[in-house]
Amino acid sequence: MKLDAKIPEGPLAQKWSKHKFNLKLVNPANKRKYTVIVVGTGLAGASAAASLAELGYNVKAFCFQDSPRRAHSIAAQGGINAAKNYQNDGDSVHRLFYDTIKGGDYRAREGNVYRLAEVSVNIIDQCVAQGVPFAREYGGLLDNRSFGGSQVSRTFYARGQTGQQLLLGAYSALNRQINLGKVKMYTRHEMMDVVTVDGEAKGIVTRDLINGAIETHAAHAVLLCTGGYGNVFYLSTNAMGCNVTAAWKAHKRGAYFANPCFTQIHPTCIPVTGDHQSKLTLMSESLRNDGRVWAPKTVELAQKLRRGELKVTDLKEEDRDYFLERKYPAFGNLVPRDVASRNAKEMVDEGRGVGASGIAVYLDFAEAIGRLGEDTVRAKYGNLFDMYQQITDENPYKQPMRIYPAVHYTMGGLWVDYNLQTTVKGLYCLGEANFSDHGANRLGASALMQGLADGYFVIPYTLGDYLANIGPKAVDTSHPAFEETKRSVVERINKLLSLKGTKTANEYHRELGHIMWEYCGMARTEEGLIKAKGLIQALRADFWQNARVSGINEEFNQNLENAGRIADFLELGELMVDDALDRKESCGGHFRLESQTDEGEALRDDDNYAYAAAWEYKGDNQPEQLHKEELVFENVKLSQRSYK
Amino acid sequence: MSNFAKTFSSSLGKKLIMAATGLFLCTFLIVHLVGNLQLFKDDAGQAFNAYAYFMTHFTPIKVVSYLLYASIIIHAVYALVITMGNKKARPIGYAVQAGSQNSPWTSRNMGILGTVLLVFIVIHMSNFWWKYHNAELPYAKYEISLDDPSDITVSELPWDAKRLVHSDYVDTQAGKQVIVSKDLYKVVAHSFKTGWYVLLYVISMAALAFHLIHGFRSAFQTVGWDNRKYVPIIRFFGVWIFGVLIPVLFAAMPVYFYFFK
Amino acid sequence: MNLTLKVWRQKNADTKGNFVTYKADHVSPDMSFLEMLDVVNEDLVKKGDDPIHFDHDCREGICGSCSLHINGRPHGPKQGIATCQLHMRSFKNNDTVVIEPWRAEAFPVIKDLATNRSAFDRIQVAGGFVSVNTGGVPDANVIPIPKVIADEAFNSATCIGCGACVAACKNASAMLFVSAKVSQMALLPQGQPERYRRVQAMVAQMDAEGFGSCTNTGACEAECPKEISITNIARMNRDYFTAKLFKEEEV
């Protein structure tokens, strides 16, 4: 199958408006004859479900959490970008577009990214109208902060809870539609598979997590808004429940998976303390606005610090290496995430890491506290500081914080065209679950923007076109495909429940995480990746032999839920490694040691790798087939990213 | 259901009733205290008996007093209704609940304190209010010299169904003001010489103190009066006036009679 | 450190539960409370027992999933945090830790320590929104909002919907939760058109769910992981009485 991204013709700035005009519309009286399934209720899912219901479609929304409000979008801290130019500092749609394309190391589609920048301004208006309490200036107007990867202040924020506030806004819009009877909400339901009829998505199979009931649901279209797969690394900043299952099942039903190796490692997380650790905690990147990142100048000093012979506060100014400011004078501490992360890793690899484990660098607010006063710093970052103190038992007002990068976001995801449709007709993918807008690296405060852009302002238009084409013929679950898919779901559950080996699913997950982090993390090599592939295959085979899953299906069984998700991660992990192997260049979050500049920066190979890698599933334990979507850049000049 | 019925059967409406009746009872306490302070006057109870007569025979006060009785009953009944609802809201309790870590003792024990107060009110009213209205009390006759108001002679008149509860006239010939009152003062003085009764009063006033320390402020919170500027004033009144001053003065009366009369 | 855990185990909503005692040995002070339970659960699974079920997700105190009543207090002994942010350094060697689910008629136990808190969702479905459709809204800066008002609305909006307020309240009252939601919208200009409808609808739903009445103990405020103030309750009461007694708005 040839990939057709369906990017509209014409000048960049007019693509979206032209496209909107060319899309077919559904007659208002007919809209109520359509049913749309939305899986996931994060920013993308909740906003899509609400917006579609407002238009008049019947929506069935599903989430595995006990409430739609708990989707992991809630955890985003720092902010949301929008090209409002309220600060009069030279921002524009084009600049946001340019920053995003460049930040993504030229591995995203121009058309998509421009549209994202275009609708970003509407998102802020929409959220304010819903009652989202963004931070404001004394004059009553919205406040902005700056964020990594850009030189303008375009980030809107709600203290350290921007994600929660935006999600509560979308959730309230969703609630309104539930109230009006246009959305039927299914909580504690996990999507187990997509049902396709003649190659088109016509419904899903779900498991009721409370009683284990396997249910089928039919619809005219299915929207997957199921988030990213960062938990493949076991330790990540993702919530415990974040999983790839929905996307992976769709992948197995024919949706191509694009750029799976593009994962983002966030530079400012709280370092790991031990094997018991179940997840990592991120601290907003906004900390880098005022905090200064440094490591001790020499290995000896670092060793002394690690052994506790020297207190960090005793270290003299000239013994500190503010390595980001030194190497990138123009952007300083505000370089994009991938660059900041890689540099921290470099410090640790050189032996200049700090903390008991030696796997951390400092983020220091002493200068900011001196300049702004402790109260101002507390007002800006108080909750983050509290969080840090809570976890580490150290007072960040008195001594620098220790930070280390952690897996945070996955740019890869299901391949979608300009309409957000996957390679399966009628199956759409929104938000972090798709691959479209961030290329090889996402800029800070852009995830919220993309999720809401997809849900509020893109899918309501593009889905209508598909629905108008297929017509409002009633759908039900009588087609044999539903029964067949349900049977395969039950079979897999039974297979999992029959595992009575010696190792828990969690142990496999942890091992998989180690492999991924070691060989497919911040720096990757051909040799390491090949090794990882073998290890993952062996681990997967072992899982289906020696894992232990407790309980039965017909009950609330978290062990079973978890095992199912880990089984999918064990398959995804291998695909990520395949993708990383295929991409011999370095770009954004994907850093191949074989491909770097003399200065140790990621070296792209635009002649050979300016494509999105879309992988087609070919059957269990079969190599997947690679399809390349060539990326065409007409409006930006591909250049070596430089933040110096 | 009508709008009003709906309002007052809602959880917030019930609370509003508790707050309104509670605050009304608080204002009554002030009036009651001012009157009872007459007990400390060294006039053989003349002022107190006059006050008792006034309270039971002045029409506007009589109307208010029925409101007062209603308030006590409504306050208690609604407390019961709310408490039963609250019990239903948590049918299975905690094995361990560390309430002391997150809330003041008084706030968690309003029901117990209120029950003590209710028992007290019943005893208190049956002893004084009921006796005053129904029992065959003797009369006190006060002869006050017009030249020197501190020169008072008291004599006791026996119960006589035909006699007025209270009369007040000036005997110009004798140069005396003659006041005859149903002698509630005597009942009070007698009661306050009884040990267990004094103890009951002191305990009940302690209960009143704790009940009001939480209750007064809480009523304002319930009606939504929580302006930051005034909350400190409300708290001050709740603690020092209603929580300390009023109960202490009330408790001082039986103690004073027991030890010093 | 070594701990003794007394954990409420209940197979499902229809069965009766009871406390079961477990040993948690070699607990590191750096572990979070939930990580300590993870370790206990790993052992249980290996032994072929049913692991202890509890809701949890983000493990950074923002999703509001975790909901354990630890030694008599929701989210454990510390203030201003959710259970997932509680670290074992808050306990001492040989401590006995009693772990119970949230207890409320409106939060029935699903299994072990997990409860059904969908009552909160239904309260918000009843009116916790501003009725605007996507698109067609004015520019975000058209209506200036005083910073203090925006900040106060934000303080109310920080609620994570965990239900600790209900769990802490001796009356299992949900007033702090509902009032935080009502307040946020009531403070902001965007919430004004539906201000009095909203408060009535949400309070009616709160009552229908079977929560208790507020007796102003302040336990909710003390246990709220986001330290939401009971000022919100006063604010909600004021709006509710205004709506019911002085405004002519249906609902």
Largest interface: A-C, 82 and 79 residues
Query: What percentage of the residues of chain C does DSSP assign to strands (E)?
Result: 5-15%
What structural category characterises the helix and strand content of chain C?
alpha+beta
Look at the structure and give the mean pLDDT of chain B. Answer: 92
Poorly predicted ranges of chain B:
none
Rg of Cα set of chain C: 20 Å
Please estimate the helix content of chain B. 55-70%
Q: What's the helix-strand series of chain B?
A: HHHHHHEEEEHHH
Sheet with the most strands, sense and barrel status of chain B: 4 strands, antiparallel
Structural class of chain B: alpha+beta
Biggest sheet statistics of chain C? 5 strands, mixed
In CATH's first tier, which class of the largest domain in chain C applies?
Answer: Mainly Alpha
Number of helices in the DSSP assignment of chain B:
9
Strand runs of chain C, count: 7
Instruction: State the share of residues found in helices of chain C, binned by percent.
Output: 25-40%
**Low-pLDDT windows of residues of chain C:** none
Oligomer: heterotrimer
- What is the 3D form of chain C? elongated
> How many domain modules of chain B?
2
Q: Globular, elongated, flat, extended or rod-shaped: what is the shape of chain B?
A: elongated
